[in-house]
Design a protein that fits this description.
This protein is α+β, with helices and mostly antiparallel strands and 448 residues long. The chain is built from twelve helices and 15 strands. The chain has three domains: 49 residues; 234 residues, Spore Coat Polysaccharide Biosynthesis Protein SpsA, Chain A (Alpha-Beta Complex); 105 residues, no CATH class. The chain is elongated, with a radius of gyration of 29 Å. One of its GO terms (biological process) is protein N-linked glycosylation.
């Protein structure tokens, strides 16, 4: 566009000067044209010499927040390539193979407290030997204070040397020269200037972390550097992902706090990194993550209970202020996450609004809601394939509607499904028991 406007301007000058037949004027104009073309080539060469660092800065400045870039971002596939950043490997062994899950942490120097080592320890201690084979942990030390980084690397290598050697733990740093402008940013929401700078840099910290982790695993989960994990969290995550096979999702949430426990497909990480980098000064990271999910057509939050990650830091990384946030859905032992095999659901009960039968079987925090049932009403689950059942658990009612439960009911297991016009039925049924206080729970071990 620079060339086009420049040459257009030159031709306009030439057209106006045609009426002037003085040879000296024409000669001067010719010199002017040559001079401008030379300057254009010089400017272009300087951009080429600046290289990818300048490109990163250009994609992160105020201009990217203007309306003329909105149409570009509507197609997020335009941002599927990696951001060209030369990372410093502070502690790492080359990754031998792609893992199932990468856990990403970004950390900076805190004025009060430091929880990074405890977070890394919790990740490894709460994972079994088999689970450790399927995870990698990437820590981005994003502070520009080299003395602090050196001290942290020394502590990490002393405490977790065997995990680094095994390729399970990598510590990296994105140099300051790759960062966009962090001063004089827009003060959205009337945030003080230092707060805007802090959250804007944090967005870029995470963008560079996501960019690095794009090809290290099949899935990626974002944590903060002051988090405690539940026991065997990876197994719980794998159960949830398996239960959602064949359905579309962008973000799965395993904590209701901030950007703790947000899970993504790794193939979405480059786009998410570009997104954070493009709008780094607009709003906090957790708000941007919500917009990203919506842009990729996942309208509703998909969050699971119990939560797998708990915030444990008492002092915030911003000014060392107190941060007492806790996830009251967190459980240290997370074995109770349902592992529902593929099935079809039927009911002859009247459904209230859009709380259809399928929601009763979902792993997400949602439910079936029917109008008061009558004798003979049924709720049928037909498994698609033969399965071995080890545990059955059915809950009715909610915390805010504790009397809205199934007061009288029984659970039967059938076999030999027979086709029916009204609903699928079985030739024989075995009664396992009756509901008590609206709930049914039983440990079994038989094949259906």
């Amino acid at each position: 566009m620079f060339k086009f406007h420049q040459m257009k301007h030159i031709f306009e000058i030439l057209d106006k000067m045609r009426c002037l037949r003085k040879r000296s004027t024409v000669s001067f104009l010719g010199v002017l044209v040559i001079f401008l073309l030379f300057m254009n080539l010089y400017i272009e060469d300087s951009y080429v010499l600046e290289g990818d660092k300048q490109l990163i800065r250009e994609t992160s400045t105020h201009q990217l927040n203007s309306e003329r870039y909105v149409h570009t971002f509507k197609d997020l596939s335009n941002f599927s390539g990696a951001i060209n950043v030369t990372y410093r490997y502070l502690a790492a062994t080359p990754l031998q193979r792609k893992r199932y899950l990468t856990i990403g942490l970004s950390s900076v120097k805190r004025k009060k407290g430091n929880y990074l080592l405890e977070t890394i320890k919790s990740i490894f201690e709460q994972s079994s030997y088999e689970e450790l084979k399927e995870i990698s942990v990437v820590v981005h030390l994003a502070d520009f204070n080299s003395s602090w980084r050196d001290a942290m690397v020394q502590d990490i290598t002393q405490k977790f040397a065997h995990h680094i050697i095994a390729g399970r733990l990598m510590v990296i740093h994105a140099p300051e020269e790759y960062y966009p402008i962090l001063d004089g940013l827009k003060r959205n929401y009337n945030d003080p200037e230092d707060r805007v700078k802090f959250r804007s840099k944090q967005n870029v910290d995470y963008a560079f972390l996501l960019n690095f982790c794009a090809n290290t695993s099949d899935y990626y989960v974002m944590l903060e550097d002051d988090v405690r994990c539940s026991k065997n969290f990876l197994t719980a995550i794998k159960k949830v992902i398996a239960s959602l096979e064949g359905t579309y999702w962008v973000t799965l949430e395993f904590s209701k706090l901030g950007y703790i426990g947000k899970l993504y497909h790794s193939h979405d990480l480059p786009r998410l990194a570009h997104f954070l980098l493009m709008f780094y000064q607009e709003m906090p990271c957790d708000w941007l993550l919500t917009h990203f999910r919506g842009l990729l057509a996942q309208k509703n939050v998909i969050r699971f209970k119990p939560s797998l990650f708990q915030h444990m830091g008492y002092y915030s990384s911003y000014k060392g202020t107190e941060n007492k946030l806790k996830d009251d859905d967190f459980e240290e032992e997370s074995f109770d996450i349902p592992d529902n095999p593929p099935a079809s659901l039927y009911t002859n009960m009247n459904v209230f609004e859009n709380y259809e039968a399928s929601k009763a079987y979902s792993s997400v925090d949602e439910y079936f809601w029917g109008k008061p049932p009558s004798t003979g009403d049924v709720f049928v689950i037909v498994f698609e394939n033969p399965i071995i059942i080890k545990k059955i658990k059915v809950n009715t009612g909610t915390e805010d509607r504790q009397n809205d439960i199934l007061h009288h009911g029984a659970l039967d297991v059938g076999e030999n499904v027979m086709p029916s016009k009204r609903r699928r039925q079985c030739s024989t049924y075995l009664r396992l028991g009756e509901f008590k206080n609206g709930n049914f729970e039983m440990s079994v071990n038989f094949c259906i």
